Backbone:
């Protein structure tokens, strides 16, 4: 079986983050970064809520799964293997201006990527997860 046949039909479906304050996270990702809530399910017996958000339908676009454990009182340890999420935007400078005006912490000002050709910046979500803003490459 070829590698193409072996992975036929595979796609990145979602990334999951555990969040301390679901409403603050939804405000950040949906109200500020423009994602939409695709589905939200409460699991009372497990005492958690899963909310899937994204920029398009779950069956074709990768999504972000926000898991809120109802009894969690302390921030989660991010570990030393975690990197960041990346959101493409047409204008990183404008996106950072809007984020900053909304009270979002910019941790790396917009500018050229070191050793690269793209414009990037970083901010933090309400739980301290790093979010890269990456300027969409213009194609002609």
Residues:
């Amino acid at each position: 079986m070829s590698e193409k046949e072996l992975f036929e039909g595979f796609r990145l479906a979602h990334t999951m983050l555990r969040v301390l304050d679901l409403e603050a996270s939804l405000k950040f990702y949906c109200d500020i970064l423009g994602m939409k809530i695709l589905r939200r399910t409460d699991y009372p017996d497990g005492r958690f809520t899963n909310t899937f958000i994204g920029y398009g339908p779950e069956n074709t676009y990768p999504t972000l799964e926000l898991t809120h454990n109802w009894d969690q009182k302390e921030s989660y340890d991010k570990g030393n293997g975690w990197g960041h999420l990346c959101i493409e935007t047409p204008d990183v400078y404008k996106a950072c201006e809007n984020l900053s005006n909304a009270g979002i912490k910019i941790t790396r000002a917009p500018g050229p990527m070191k050793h690269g050709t793209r414009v990037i910046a970083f901010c933090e979500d309400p739980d301290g997860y790093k979010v890269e803003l990456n300027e969409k490459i213009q194609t002609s």
